[in-house]
Amino acid sequence: QVQLVQSGAEVKKPGASVKISCMASGYTFTNYFLHWVRQAPGQGLEWMGIINPSGGSTSYAQNFQGRVTMTSDTSTSTVYMELSSLTSEDTAVYYCAREIVVVPAAMFGDYFDYWGQGALVTVSS
Amino acid sequence: DIQMTQSPSSLSASVGDRVTITCRASQPISRFLNWYRQKPGKAPEVLIYAASSLQSGVPSRFSGSGSGTDFTLTISSLQPEDFATYYCQQSYTTPPTFGQGTRLDIK
């Protein structure tokens, strides 16, 4: 069965960086794009970016440009999200999510069909 | 970016009730609208994709409708596990954007 298993909770000081992993299993890793979405405490969902595990191409949300880096390792079916220059406003649960495109895409588009369990990042001095 | 606005932001209902949640896009998005349920402390899970298609394994009490800018999620008979927060999400353009959420509480 499809699983996305994320690394554990992190506590970081302001100005530091954090790197979270998301290991995929149960499907062909390179066939599906993966996204990162975060959720601040008591808040809604915020899209951060997307990575194509096959080749590693990425696209980032404007809010995170210059601060986020997403990478993939096909040998371990793992994607990583690194966020730098952390502030208290980056305290959130970070999720990876798999994108599925329903054919025909022009009629059905895409959605997030599997999610990791989330990784809590706390930024505090 | 396309703004997604849900209403209401919260509502209270009882087991067995029929409830409807609305999502409005700031510009037309055809039918590229998905609905998710998020239980406390858990990741979101998809319920409906492409406005009205039921995700495999999701109970038939969930249904979706709409196109263009206005969409609805209906739960025909609330079950205890449905007391959660619901989000709409547009997949028409990048970046994908979510509504602010609708919290559904037990009355």
How do you describe this structure in short?
With 125 residues, chain A is mainly β.
Structural overview:
The complex is a heterodimer of chains A (125) and B (107). In chain A, 3% of the residues lie in helices and 50% in strands. Chain A has one helix and eleven strands. In chain A, strands 2, 4, 5, 6, 9, 10 and 11 form a seven-stranded mixed β-sheet that branches. Chain A is globular, with a radius of gyration of 14 Å. The mean pLDDT of chain A is 97. In chain B, strands 2, 4, 5, 6, 9, 10 and 11 form a seven-stranded mixed β-sheet that branches. In chain B, strands 1-3-8-7 form a four-stranded antiparallel β-sheet, with no helix packed on it. Chain B is globular and about 35 Å long. The interface between A and B is medium-sized, with 23 and 24 residues.
Distance between the termini of chain B: 36 Å
Cα(first) to Cα(last) distance of chain A is 40 Å
Total strands of chain A: the figure is 11
Helix content of chain B: under 10%
Shape of chain B: globular
- H/E element string of chain B? EEEEEEEEEEE
The helix/strand class of chain A is mainly beta
Q: Please give the radius of gyration of chain A in angstroms.
A: 14 Å
Main β-sheet description of chain A = 7 strands, mixed
User: What's the helix-strand series of chain A?
Assistant: EEEEEEEEEHEE
